[in-house]
Write a structure and sequence with these properties.
single chain; 15 helices; 493 residues; globular
Amino acid sequence: MAELTELGISEARDLLAKGALSSRELTESHISAMAESSALNAMVTETPEIALAMADASDERRAKGGSGALEGIPLAIKDLFCTKGVLTTAGSHILDGFRPPYESTVTANLWQAGAVMLGKTNMDEFAMGSSNETSYYGAVQNPWRRHGDNRALVPGGSSGGSATAVSGRFAMGATATDTGGSIRQPASFTGTVGCKPTYGRCSRWGVVAFASSLDQAGPITRSVRDNAIMLGAMAGYDPKDATSANVALPDFEAALTGDARGLKIGVPKEYVLDGMPGEIEALWQRGIGWLRAAGAEIIDISLPHTKYALPTYYIVAPAEASSNLARYDGVRFGLRMPGDDLTEMYENTRAAGFGPEVRRRVLIGTYVLSAGYYDAYYLKAQKVRRLIAQDFRDVFASVDAILTPSTPSAAFAFGDKADDPIAMYLNDVFTVPANLAGLPGISLPAGLSDDGLPLGLQVLAPAFDEETMFRVAGLLEEAAAFNEAPTQWWRSR
């Protein structure tokens, strides 16, 4: 049998069902791999004892004839999801010591499906970042390296820890969140598959909030099929979340038909950027060719308000963040810094607890919501957001899905963009529009850069049509035949 950490979710599921493998064996192998991968700094909290107890319980259920969709599968959980009794920090000093007395709906759904928790993954503080350099617990390293260059690379953000855990073969899958590309961009940088479902498909209850009208949970895995399986277990209507959509939950795995007949794929001209690396353009063209060869019809489309998506996002998201993060005051939970009076305690706690990027976005958000600027910035951004969503609605009247690059570049080295917030924000240029419109999107690895780093393609689909998204992604995955993996250099340390 191949090394257990190389198995995908669907492969392990089949072996577990046949009795050829136990959840305890599978979990022990991933716990060992996780312990050997500390150099990547992907985990904030490891929970091996909890994992083994959950694995044993899974094996007992299976012996009695019970089996959930993820029965016995070891997963990592982004440290933005509240896990009952287990440290939850959102990558921030201000949540030091916070152990929620409740479980997020998404993780509760996973445990109900039989999954096993390996631990909590590192992330950009409060999900604010595109490189995983803003975490209070230090930066996460990408498992990949450029050919002939040993410099450490970023894994993308904010879900960089989750993407690294899956790419580094010490988690079979991981939960993640996407506010402006925080699932799809790190998936592209690490050679994994990352899906942001339709806004409302997965409950936000128990997920630490960044921007409430944009945040959406989703899975990171190593294959499209695994992603479909995991999303099916995560998703579903939740009456505790007012933004949760009460819609039918399809069998996402069944959508992987391998059939392109009748599909119309849109290619937006606005996603061709000045200065975009030739290898990104070439990969996009290969993706178009693969779908055309499979029988899909390729249609040139226009999304005219795309150029306003990034500035719109960086008004709306900080505005919502400034409101959401007002609750962190040192009174009820987490860090508390002393002061001579209540106001000074608030000020000292927030100054010590929040990192530079969080402070930057809170200040931006407070400014655009302030008297005299609300109409000029926030209200105008919301109007543009509506136009961006309308662009997609118009286009989806004539196409079934849209194909774009996932990111404007491959992974970059630490420090390359950390001192230039605008350059960092541009990493989200291809992913942000889907968040503003609430649409499902998926990034899958489709090739390597000239330096030997993963590059991703993105598929977007109409709202609540993840089935078409997975169908197209499955076709691309089969054509790309991407089977590259990082060398696991870190385990030799």
